[in-house]
Amino acid sequence: GENVEQHPSTLSVQEGDSAVIKCTYSDSASNYFPWYKQELGKGPQLIIDIRSNVGEKKDQRIAVTLNKTAKHFSLHITETQPEDSAVYFCAASKTTSGAGSYQLTFGKGTKLSVIP
Amino acid sequence: KAGVTQTPRYLIKTRGQQVTLSCSPISGHRSVSWYQQTPGQGLQFLFEYFSETQRNKGNFPGRFSGRQFSNSRSEMNVSTLELGDSALYLCASSLAYDREPYEQYFGPGTRLTVT
């Protein structure tokens, strides 16, 4: 099955600096890669996603890049703010050939701390 | 539009008991997935339901089961609880009506503690 590795497990940055989180996946058939932000006591919140027919996607201060050949994708947060502090998860999924079911395989998470 | 709701938010049970958790998806979403989140194993897929049918199941023992109703609401049940079942149980809903992956939106979770 799919295996998703995520690095680093913890990341501390100064407010205003950029943060980068990297993930690799094992199944070359995976074609959908979402990123989630989870704050304490809450469920994961979808912040951005990318499909395999796109190499990069941006949404304000957040961007995701995908390298299908190397099977890795990254989350970039620019101009970090204290409210960006949370645990971030990458995930992978793929189109199915059967009844249409799919599942997300998650990385282990990155705890991001933005220091004011 | 209201988000995914889960009840109860917190639950304490004793080993050997059973528990039922409930999830109401976003209006119009017919796919509901369940995930278990623990510090050691992270987020792991339990199962997915679409139009009252289980379409996919993760690698969990048969003590974990679920169902979906005609209004897309879903329940999951864990029988003969073990200490290791203590976790945050998350429900996610999605449009997911064909074979392509769709965005999944998570609820706040149910924190289950087994003593």
Topology:
The complex is a heterodimer of chains A (116) and B (115).
Chain A: E1 4-7, E2 10-14, E3 19-25, E4 32-38, E5 45-51, E6 56-59, E7 62-67, E8 72-77, E9 86-92, E10 105-106, E11 110-115
Parallel strand pairs in A: 2-11
Antiparallel strand pairs in A: 1-3, 3-8, 4-5, 4-9, 6-7, 7-8, 9-10, 9-11
Chain B: E1 5-7, E2 10-13, E3 19-24, E4 31-38, E5 42-50, E6 53-57, E7 64-68, E8 74-78, E9 87-94, E10 105-106, E11 110-114
Parallel strand pairs in B: 2-11
Antiparallel strand pairs in B: 1-3, 3-8, 4-5, 4-9, 5-6, 7-8, 9-10, 9-11
Your description of this structure?
The complex is a heterodimer of chains A (116) and B (115). Chain A has no helices and 11 strands. Chain A is mainly beta. In chain A, strands 2, 4, 5, 9, 10 and 11 form a 6-stranded mixed sheet that branches. The N and C termini of chain A lie far apart (41 Å). The model of chain A has no long low-confidence stretch (mean pLDDT 94). Chain B is mainly beta and 115 residues long. Chain B has strands at 5-7, 10-13, 19-24, 31-38, 42-50, 53-57, 64-68, 74-78, 87-94, 105-106, 110-114. The radius of gyration of chain B is 13 Å and the shape is globular. Chain A binds chain B through residues 31-32, 34, 36, 41-46, 49, 89, 91, 93-109, and chain B through 4, 33, 35, 42-45, 48, 50, 55-56, 58, 90, 92, 96-101, 103-109.
